[in-house]
Amino acid sequence: MSKVESLGITGVETVHYYVSDLERSRRFYTERMDFAEIGKSGSELEAKGEQTSAVFRAGDVAVLCSQPQGENGRAANFLRRHPDGIGSVVFSVKDVKRAFKLLENRGGTPTSEIQHHEDDGGTLDFFSIMTPFGDTTFRFVERNGYSKLFPGMEVYDSPRGGSNVYGVSHIDHITSNFNTMKPALLWMEHVLGLQQYWDVAFLTTDVDPQLDHVSGLRSIVMFDPDSGIKFANNEPWRPFFRRSQIYLFNEDHRGDGIQHIALVVPDVIETVRGLRDRGVDFMPTPGAYYDMLPKRIEQLGIGSIDEDLAVLRELEILVDGEAPGKYMLQIFLKDSAATHDDPNAGPFFYEIIQRKGDKGFGAGNFRALFESIEREQSEAGRM
């Protein structure tokens, strides 16, 4: 892939999550995930946008949840077509005018001109574009001292709820599912200026030849070299295209979209222990994975790990890597529909990841996640 001039992205500022039950989301983030609620929508914004919103933050991760309060707002429009899901990703940029010009010249589709706002602290300039990620838009923001979160949002004097006891620091990557991902990959390359970082393809029979069904996926990770932001992208793989859990996500979400977001923590073991104590459920990992783990660690060339394998088995944490002494630990929460026992909560979920020198995506763990999702879907009678 040829290199395209950088947009000047500096990070993911906010993820905008459209939900049918804001109080449920508030309990999930503040009581289970230990995020702090830092602000909410003001009455004028709620009346104008026909939705009520709250912002939850842990480290550099901010999640803006919005519930419809009418029939014509963005949240209502999204939720008419989909269950709860990520409707927008907000990126900070160095120069919003330059980013706008680059995107427009490359065939990007802005939804408006650059919006300019001021308050006592400074200025805020932003614009949004359409994307191939289903009904998810991307917003690009340049802040220069602007004190509010967004126009019409009220920031609390003191955060409410959690205190980020698990040390969530930032988003490691964003994963999306497509029934065909090549158009999205070309858009990411030629419009956003991203480069290919990693890829894998497999069928579940690669993992277990005795499986009574066959499913598969192809995955390609794109990244922004300047900011390091990574986008993992999946599509179903023949010959059993419609048996793939990627295809089933598309059915549940009612279209392409963001499947999960990976949150970085400094100690995944303590994080998982704490989250389990708070009632957070994770996708299960079979005991056979841990029976084979010592051999896998040797075959991968990792050498040795610091963690007790019995503890990893107990907590069902996954391990992967590609170089001596460099590996990562990860685990996946159950999706929102299972977490809240409500199909309308949608198939989105979070990943918890701790990187110990490894920068990859763990093909072995990809398979383990794939199998885990399939077991959940099989138990629900979907496969």
Summarize the structure.
By secondary structure, the protein is of the alpha+beta class. It folds into two domains: 9-161, Roll (2,3-Dihydroxybiphenyl 1,2-Dioxygenase, domain 1); 171-379, Roll (2,3-Dihydroxybiphenyl 1,2-Dioxygenase, domain 1), CATH 3.10.180.10.
Give me the CATH architecture of the largest domain, please.
Roll
Mean pLDDT: 91
> Regarding quaternary structure, how should these chains be classified?
single chain
Beta-strand content bin: 25-35%
The largest beta-sheet arranges its strands as: 6-7-8-5-1-4-3-2-9
Globally, the shape reads globular
Give the terminus-to-terminus CA distance.
Answer: 37 Å
Structural class: alpha+beta
Please count the helical segments.
Answer: 12
- Tell me the CATH topology of the largest domain: 2,3-Dihydroxybiphenyl 1,2-Dioxygenase, domain 1
